[in-house]
Amino acid sequence: MSPSSTTPQATVHGSPRQGPDRELKKAVEGYWAGRVTADGLHATAAGLRRDTWRRLADAGVTEVPTGDFSLYDHVLDTTVAVGAIPARHRAAVDADPLDGYFAMARGTQDVAPLEMTKWFDTNYHYLVPELGPDTVFAANPAKPVGELREALALGHRARPVLVGPLTYLLLAKPAPGVDPGFQPLTLLDRLLPVYAELLAGLRAAGADWVQLDEPALVQDRTPAELNAAARAYRDLGALTGRPRILVATYFDRAGAALPVLAKAPVEGLGLDFTGPAAGNLDDLAAVGGLPGKRLVAGVVDGRNIWINDLEKSLATLATLLGLAGQVDVAPSCSLLHVPLDATRERDLDPQIARWLAFARQKTAEITTLARGLREGTPAIGAELAANRADLASRAASALTHDPAVRARAAATTAEDARRPQAYPDRARAQQARLKLPLLPTTTIGSFPQTTELRAARAGLRAGRLDPAGYRERMAAEVREVIAYQEKAGLDVLVHGEPERNDMVQYFAEQLTGYLATRHGWVQSYGTRYVRPPVLAGDVSRPRPMTVDWFRYAQDLTDRPVKGMLTGPVTMLAWSFVRDDQPLAETARQVALALRDEVTDLEAAGAAVVQVDEPALRETLPLRAAGRPGYLAWATEAFRLTTSGVRADTQVHTHMCYAEFGEIMTAIEELDADVISLEAARSHMRVAHELAAAGYPREVGPGVYDIHSPRVPSTGEAVALLREGLAAIPAERLWVNPDCGLKTRGWAETRASLDHLVEAARLVRAELAG
Ligand SMILES: CN1c2c(nc(N)[nH]c2=O)NC[C@@H]1CNc1ccc(C(=O)N[C@@H](CCC(=O)N[C@@H](CCC(=O)N[C@@H](CCC(=O)O)C(=O)O)C(=O)O)C(=O)O)cc1
Ligand SMILES: N[C@@H](CCS)C(=O)O
Ligand SMILES: [Zn+2]
């Protein structure tokens, strides 16, 4: 029976795609390796979609999202749906849409992929649309319509989801060769007819509602951008024979976009009411609500894993009932950003596991809340009582309050977070100790995480390999990594991180206050997944975490080996964080634990310690008003981690995938001696940005794009280095890849690093001659 349109229902914006045991990863990687056919891949994908819809429907979700599934990335899917295929990929896409799709995502030896960057402030990466004045859009409804038909054929009510036109254009960049000042938003009038065609195709296929995701509207937008939003939804709203339109915003409050969307001739709005977006409640009241319209109310945090406070959500929903024609209950955003099922975490203390809600549990929460709204709170009395007990157990837990950790954090002073020596003095002391050549070469830390290394770890877990056997396997890898780097002629070496399952999880598993998951996979990009650990309590370091491996590697060589740590901001950004205290406080606890590790590495002989902060930029609040406060605690946490060392110990940091422009001042305030950054795909843009900002210290803009299996030629690396030298003086320029090599194979790694070292030699010779 179809539910009445005004009775509160539960719905979701999107679901995890990977399957319970990452079946999607295995199928896609199998296809790339030739082990799985295209039909086999499509069958696995269809099976995963079917299971997801079934699971949602069984839980009580009456309208399932479609089109949120993707073989690689939903923004790339939108690029395909609007026909914005970059010219260099056109022939491949025409020859074979599936192979062409993966070529856009990953590149080939001959053709570069699309640039990849973070999806708002999450750890998910999307492929950046490349547009220019000559872009011709053309509707390609095959995927959205196909997936809708699949869901309908399985008997579901379905709501196709597409990235909205504003967000699509605001996330796009000028295509290579196009004037960098080109503004993709100027293409709106050309894009809207394509969206109209997609909407018509979906309507014809049976869509009653279509959801257009517009998270870009929760960022500070100019009046011109807001006008564009008004125009877009006025035009789409004016179409005849279209489905009903739900415009979904999430990740923050809609702010100035709210009155625009509330006035637009669309039938529904999705708003986030969690965390910093809770202000949407007052804002919605201030615009007079959404009379006669559908509100999809995101009251369950879609990107963190704590159980919902059901009573609080019911109170919010009760207010919202008076503000819209229909109120449906939802997570704040797609559940893509959380793992699938907390009940699979059988290694966790069962009491603690009850505090956690992954996608399945969140789905149960929203269906419970919707039932409470429909039938009254007594109907969900048992769920409310259990929820109250679980919330109380978390609040009272000893895990969340370690007096020693709190006392140490409280006693920290501003001086603790400052290196006592000025940078020029440090630079002199470090050069005297390290004696590095001009344009020193290094890598970012990880070497290939081969199947054998992962199998060894799996073997250790399963008891097939004893701890000594495992250690010897890792030691053998460190020996090989060091020997290779010496032979290749790299100047500052790394141990290769073979023992690390992940750069955050590895530390989380050794720090008190963190919980690690066994099955809690979340898509990071394409077929790459992470298991974000849960920052559940006060953080401390019971014992050194990396010192033995550092010592082992340094004893194998006379060249400096970098101590290698993940910084405090990234330890928060790539974890599920506590929501019961300010992030700044958690960051300080993590920083103090890491500070001890830095000083232990120095005492063990490390002349260089690298503290990676790839997540510094992505964690930047989406709205400018929150940024100064964030950057103050984030940079302080980094300095607290790194400032306990001597002048002649060189502190490196590393960042990747970032739009660095907005955080130049913060990069400077980290006070790191050397920073390595991603730059290869963006043609050294960051080197110029740093130069323009007057950055005074050493910089390694990447000359090797490690996100693609492509081997850069020596000539390409030389060209990038020359570009780097146009911005940064040779005395302050390092030569390195964009990021770690863990996703690469050994053959590509060897060839690429050989070219990188050769390029450094050639450019040194040019400089000398
Ligand atoms: C630098 N990046 C990182 C981000 N976030 C992190 N948390 N970590 C990062 O490094 N965000 C931005 C980028 C994203 N980049 C990447 C790059 C590579 C990966 C990746 O390779 N992920 C792996 C999984 C890594 C891992 O956890 N490995 C473990 C477990 C291995 C495993 O799959 N085990 C199986 C059993 C295997 C067997 O043989 O039986 C299992 O447990 O089911 C390990 O090495 O021990 C991936 O496969 O996707 C991610 C983000
Ligand atoms: N040291 C890490 C940084 C990744 S961002 C690595 O090399 O993989
Ligand atoms: Zn990196």
Automatic annotation (TrEMBL):
It catalyses: 5-methyltetrahydropteroyltri-L-glutamate + L-homocysteine = tetrahydropteroyltri-L-glutamate + L-methionine. Its EC number is 2.1.1.14. GO terms for biological process: methionine biosynthetic process; methylation. The keyword rRNA processing does not apply. L-methionine binds at I444, G445, S446, E497, D612. Keywords: Amino-acid biosynthesis, Metal-binding, Methionine biosynthesis, Methyltransferase, Repeat, Transferase, Zinc. L-homocysteine binds at I444, G445, S446, E497, D612. Signal peptide: none annotated. Binds 1 zinc ion per subunit. This is 5-methyltetrahydropteroyltriglutamate--homocysteine methyltransferase. Belongs to the vitamin-B12 independent methionine synthase family. It holds the Pfam family Meth_synt_1. Residues 10-321 form the Cobalamin-independent methionine synthase MetE N-terminal domain. Its cofactor is Zn(2+). Zn(2+) 1 binds at H654, C656, E678, C739. Zn(2+) binds at H654, C656, E678, C739. Residues 1-23 are annotated as: Disordered. The active site is at H707. Pathway: Amino-acid biosynthesis; L-methionine biosynthesis via de novo pathway; L-methionine from L-homocysteine (MetE route): step 1/1. Residues 1-12 have a biased composition (Polar residues). GO terms for molecular function: 5-methyltetrahydropteroyltriglutamate-homocysteine S-methyltransferase activity; zinc ion binding. Catalyzes the transfer of a methyl group from 5-methyltetrahydrofolate to homocysteine resulting in methionine formation. Gene3D superfamilies: 3.20.20.210. Residues 439-761 form the Cobalamin-independent methionine synthase MetE C-terminal/archaeal domain. CDD domains: CIMS_C_terminal_like, CIMS_N_terminal_like. 5-methyltetrahydropteroyltri-L-glutamate binds at R22, E23, L24, K25, K118, N123, W574, E618.
